[in-house]
Design brief:
alpha/beta
Length: 226
């Protein structure tokens, strides 16, 4: 899969000037983790198709795209959501189109704060293609907020499951995450077993230099000389 820029214009500058401000839309795409998925990563394409379908149905023109790849919905500080609001203030686009409300965020409190930056402060409009509610109505606002709450609930449940799995690994005397770990050998069939030679280094009782640990680790990932 080719590298996707974080921001790209979908129209030329001269074409943008001919599009009424009220008809301009930004497509916002977020993927929480694309590492290791390679060609099987289809979520951005699914999101883009739904956004384009909504734009076509509502006679809107997607003039630009923002891609937040490998960005968690739990946090907003490292994402480009501020650019979304700034684009409305600069009259580059009026509408912001998402795939689902979970793409906006999985943190209810911050989701509403950043929605307010776009809608209340910049006077823009945020819509989700597959969960299209009108937040200007009481029922629409309630429905949108319910979807944001469900998005946060899903994230919390996944987090709880990981915490339980990691706690079990610690009870079993294993590293709390997978992958190579100094002090252990790993076999897909038998799992982790103690590497006695490396454990002798750990039990030696004296501070070790990074180079010593690296030699004893035999090149274990994540263990490097200082």
């Amino acid at each position: 899969m080719s590298e996707q820029p974080a921001f790209e214009w979908a129209v030329a500058p001269e074409e943008l000037d001919r599009i009424p401000f009220e008809k301009r839309a930004l497509g916002y795409i977020r993927v929480s983790d694309e590492k290791g998925r390679g060609e099987y990563l289809i979520s951005p394409e699914i999101q883009k198709h739904s956004i384009q379908t909504l734009a076509g149905r509502e006679d809107l023109v997607v003039v630009a795209w923002i891609y937040d790849k490998d960005k968690s919905g739990r946090y907003f500080t490292k994402r480009r959501v501020k650019d979304v609001a700034q684009g409305v203030r600069d009259r580059q686009w009026k509408n912001v189109l998402l795939w689902k409300w979970s793409r906006w965020g999985r943190n209810m409190k911050e989701s509403l704060v950043y929605l307010s930056h776009v809608e209340d402060e910049a006077r823009g409009i945020v819509r989700a293609a597959t969960e299209d509610f009108d937040p200007r109505t009481s029922v629409g606002k309630f429905s949108r907020n319910q979807m944001l709450l469900i998005a946060e609930l899903q994230s919390d449940m996944i987090s709880d499951s990981w915490k339980e799995a990691q706690a079990k690994r610690r009870r079993d005397g294993l590293p709390h995450t997978g992958g190579p770990r100094f002090g252990y050998d790993y076999d897909r069939r038998t799992g982790y077993t103690v590497n006695e030679d490396q454990m002798k280094v750990l039990r030696g009782g004296r501070p070790l230099r990074a180079a010593e640990i690296h030699r004893a680790a035999g090149g274990v990932a994540g263990v490097h000389p200082g």
